[in-house]
Amino acid sequence: MELKNMPDLCVKIGGLVLKNPVMTASGTFGYGEEFADFFDISTLGGIIVKGTTGSKREGNAYPRMAETPSGMLNAVGLQNKGVDNFISDIYPRIKDINTNMIVNVSGSTIDEYIMVASKLNELDKIPAIELNISCPNVKEGGMAFGTSCPSAIAVTEAIRKVYHKTLIVKLSPNVTNIAEMAKAVEGAGADSVSLINTLLGMAIDIERQKPLLSTITGGLSGPAVKPVALRMVWQVAKAVKIPVIGLGGIMNAADAIEFMLAGATAIQVGTANFIDPAVCPKIIDGINDYLIRHRNNNVNEIIGKI
Amino acid sequence: MKVVSNKNLNTKYFLLTLQPPDNMPVILPGQFAQVEIKDAKNTFLRRPLSVHDVDYKNNTIKLLVQIIGEGTKKLSEIKEGDSLNLVYPLGNSFSTSGADNVLLVGGGCGIAPLLYLARLLFEKNIKVTTLIGGSSESDILEADEYRKYGDVLITTLDASIGEKGLVTQHSVFNSDKFPYTAIYTCGPEPMMKALARIAKEMNIRCEVSLENMMACGIGACLCCVVDTNEGNKCTCTKGPVFNYKELKGWS
User: Fold this and answer.
1) Which residue of A has its CA nearest to B221?
2) From the CB of residue A54, how many other CB atoms can be counted at a distance below 10 Å?
3) What is the CATH topology of the domain spanning A11-60+76-204+221-302?
4) How far is Cα A226 from Cα A27, in angstroms, rounded to an integer?
5) What digits encode the pLDDT tens for the residues A32-52?
6) Beta bridge partners of B247
7) Tens-digit pLDDT profile for residues A56-88
8) Closest among A68, A57, A51, A24 to A219, alpha carbons compared
């Protein structure tokens, strides 16, 4: 039997080397451990752990989730135990997972972002943070920073001063011109941008005549948002020089490849983890098979072909 | 998993018997499965369904399901020999020790997780009584199965079978000699809250199985939380069974 040359799946994001382009999206994969029963999570290119804030947050009231056609709305609202608990309780458990463990950072004020990022900067086994300026489910901060260029620049510049490893900024799709936002944070020192966070949406129970979410509005994810996400990734990839991480409704390898053709250097799998907790290795295998079928020796050959 | 049988109990409920390709893991009473629904246009997420019964000898599990929306309707159409993808077993369980005379209370399809529990309690020589409530006779499911493990009491709103009224209006609660040392229940939340109040008055243990809407089922998405004395907890991993005393607004 003729041995096939296995394609090289390795990609680079700032200072990060990813063994393959498949990462998991923040808020959909816990701290990774939750999925360890389903597959070897060290085979992932990276894991973006749950959004972490300066102090403990209980998140929003139940109901926080509503199913919609080809997707779901969530309004979790950054429930987490705060950065100090992350460092003392969670970090020791996850630091030796053999992949890029990246922390998603959020806050209500620039000072809170700075405090979290400074503390994470000291952790040897956290090689990058993803700055969440796009959470639609908190009253203060979150998306407010990510929907105007001056505030996105202000928070990114502030973090760049205190965070010396790879800085990814997660962009909101709830803007008129996402390419401008991407260029703004690139200019402020981001090493990479990831997009899209969820699209602001809502759903109503017509019999009870009440919204389905306690917060009325929430963030839409899943296949329903994929065409929008893909378009935005394509626009951003054309506009910036830093690598783009694409996400939004990726359910399988074909979806992931679409994002890469549109210009994403890496991708994140989010809501699909809920439907199939072992979907990520299937996506990695599918990308590998695609490259063999298209006679590509290196995954970088397909990035941004559109 | 292979569908061994799909039995329609009536127009609203069906009973699935499923067989995994490998030996089943140990399943605890009260645990659930996340069931994938295929080819349903508006059903995107898995459906969390209680394990109704477990048969290790034949390597099968049963799910008792109520047709509510498109997802469960689609599931009701599954045929013998078809395959179904389950993530299981998930969640915690009811207690099977610490009480010697247990009242199980199921409202409608809420009896689903109580059959396996009834059998395990019976096998441990714990006295079991099952109280089943529904709107009408067609909501009283599998009563004969529960009779294998102890007495069965029934209430219906239209008095078509058993006593008339809600489960909490059953005469067993008016008796001077309420013999039970624990109540384990699953069903509509107002029913379970009313039972929790009774348990508090009687000073006996009460465990309730919640049915919060879930996305992942494994504690990652934090969508299915319930407000507890220790803050928001995931129903999928810290529940679905809770002692009512843990839950805010229940006691």
Assistant:
1) A28
2) 20
3) TIM Barrel (3.20.20)
4) 18
5) 999 999 999 999 999 999 999
6) B228
7) 999 999 999 999 999 999 999 999 999 999 999
8) A68
The CATH number of the structural domain formed by B212-251 is: 2.10.240.10
Q: What does the H/E/C string look like for A121-163? A: HCCCCCCEEEEECCCCCCCCCCHHHHCCHHHHHHHHHHHHHHC
Q: Where are the domains of chain A?
A: 11-60+76-204+221-302
CB-side exposure of B163: number of CA atoms within 13 Å? 14
Strand partners, B153: B131
Angle, in degrees to the nearest 10, between helices A178-187 and A149-162: 30
pLDDT of A2 above 60: no
Shortest CA distance from B232: residue in chain A: A58
State mean pLDDT over B75-102: 96
The answer regarding whether domain B101-209 maps to CATH 3.40.50.970 reads no
Distance from the Cα of A305 to chain B's closest Cα (Å) equals 31
Q: What is the ipTM of this complex?
A: 0.93
Q: Which residues of A touch B222 (CB under 8 A)?
A: 27, 50, 59, 64, 76, 79
Please count the residues of chain A.
306
- CATH 3.40.50.80 range(s) for chain B read 101-209
Q: Where in chain B is the domain with CATH 2.10.240.10?
A: 212-251
- Identify whether A280 is a catalytic site residue: no
Give which of B35, B41, B44, B84 to mutate to test A binding, by max A Cβ within 10 Å.
Answer: B44
Distance from CA of A1 to the nearest CA of B (A): 32
CATH 2.40.30.10 in chain B, residues?
2-90
Rg of chain A over all Cα atoms, to the nearest angstrom: 18
CATH topology of domain B2-90: Elongation Factor Tu (Ef-tu); domain 3 (2.40.30)
Closest residue on chain B to A224 (Cα):
B44
pLDDT of amino acid A141: 66
